[in-house]
Every structure is written in structure tokens, then in C-alpha cells.
Amino acid sequence: MEFSTEKLDFECRELAEFLIHETGQQEGKLDVDNILQYLGLTSLQFSFDRELPIEKNTRALLSYPDKIIAVEENLKPERKRFSFLHEVGHYVLPNHQSSYLCDDKGLSAFSHLTHEKEANEFAAELLFMGNQFLLQINSLPINAKTVKKLADQYYASFESTARRLAEKNSRPCMFIRFNRNQTAQIELSGEDIWSAQYSIPSSIFKQKYGREFKGIVPCGIVNQLIRSSQDITDSIVTQEFVNTVSGRSEMSFEYFYNQYNILAFLIPK
């Protein structure tokens, strides 16, 4: 079967649901090879630094006329899956169908390029099995234990799972990622500052409390997480007051650590 979207007007979500249905994957985690086979795409993995030295930081590519997708062989398995699906997005989404070289910026959640953002959204819809994930998350607690359960189920990273858990939730909540700023230190204590890099609110949280969180992780929590956390479920829950667009509100923070960044859920008390 020759797949074409030239005469179709699909949104990312609808097209992802179509592919999930057509490949018979209504339950469980997505079989990426099944998607590639259905579309007639060949997949390759190799070192881009060695084989494609003219393009630095390339993580994945699509050769559209050759129907070939290649990803960097040294990526972690979860990132390989997402990278393959990102290139599938470029292959099937209307107005995308061309060859692409995608780097870390294009495949990140911070990309400002329209086609890269659309391919990322499409990849996330496929990775988390469309409506299956949406129905599931609204019946589960918003916490680190749920993140671990869903990340294992969908074979996704903890951060991408936590981000999507908040973004697609029907309840008020926000996901925050904190990065360590090694050049800025808290006066006297000499401790590194972990400040909010980005935040993702659910729709209802954004309407009532705002779309962005600015702040740092308290030093005591940083020390406890970094020294004792062996698993993201080794989380710390605190109650704090936060200035929001609705005024000063009491919130529950759950901080957890993925061995790279400190992550948190923010939920109204």
C-alpha cells in the first residue's frame, strides 16, 4: 500500500490516531518498526560524526525520495524511538514532505521552527498512543510514581512522560524542570542554584494560575535529592505559597530527580 496525505487535511493528533489504528496498535506501547514497515520506510542507525561530518550535532535525518530514516546510533533507546517518530512526522505531515537533517535543537521541546514543532507534536502523539494516554492519565495520581509507571509502559523518558502528563491533564497541575546553574551560587552557603528552566501547565492551570513558574529549588531539598535519590520515586513533597495571576495560592510541590535534572509537579492545594 502506498501511503499519501496529499489530499488529506489531518491534524497531528488525527494522523497519529490513523496510523495507530491502521497498524493494529490499540493497546500497549507503540511498535515503531510496525509504523515504519506500514509506510514502506527503511531505518538506519550510524554515527553521524563519522559518516556525516559536514553537519554537526545532527541527530536524525529523512531522505524523502529514498524513503530512508536514519538516527544517531549513540542515542539512548528512548531518544532513538522519538527521533524515528519525529522523522516519520516529516514524512507524513502535509507540507512537510521533503528531506530533513534534524539536530538537537530541532528535536527539543524548545524548538521555534514550525515544521520541527509539528513533527515533535506528531512524534509525541504516536509515542504515547494518542487517546489511550489521555484516558489513562486522568484516572491516575499526578506524581512521580505515575511518571515511572507510564515511562516504563510507553518506553519513554521520565521527563517527556512527566511533561505530557501535565500538559494533557484535565486537572490543574504544572510540570517544572530545574537546571543547575554552576556559575551562580547562593551567598554564604556556596550551594549551586537549581533554577526553573521551563514549565508546562495543564490547560485549566494556565487559565487560573498562569503559564510560567519562576523560582529555585530550596537548598535543603536539593541536597536531600542529589545525595539520597536512587530512583525518581524517591521524591520530596512540600507545601508552599506561590504568587499567581489569581493571587497568593497554596500549592503542593513534589520534587524528584532523574539523575540529570530536578523535576517537579506543582498542584493547587
Describe what you observe in this structure.
With 269 residues, this protein is α+β, with helices and mostly antiparallel strands. The strands form 2 sheets. A 5-stranded antiparallel beta sheet has the order 6-5-9-8-7. Strands 1-3-2-4 form a 4-stranded mixed beta sheet. It folds into 2 domains: 12-127, Arc Repressor Mutant, subunit A; 143-268, Beta-Lactamase. The chain has helices at residues 12-22, 32-39, 48-51, 77-92, 114-127, 131-137, 144-154, 158-167, 203-209, 219-228, and strands spanning 42-46, 58-63, 68-72, 100-103, 174-185, 192-201, 236-244, 247-257, 262-268. The protein contains 10 helices and 9 strands. Residues 1-9 have low confidence and may be disordered. Helix 1 packs parallel to helix 5, helix 4 packs across helix 5 and helix 7 (144-154) crosses helix 8.
Notable features of this structure?
269 residues; alpha+beta; Arc Repressor Mutant, subunit A; Beta-Lactamase; five-stranded antiparallel sheet; four-stranded mixed sheet; 36% helix
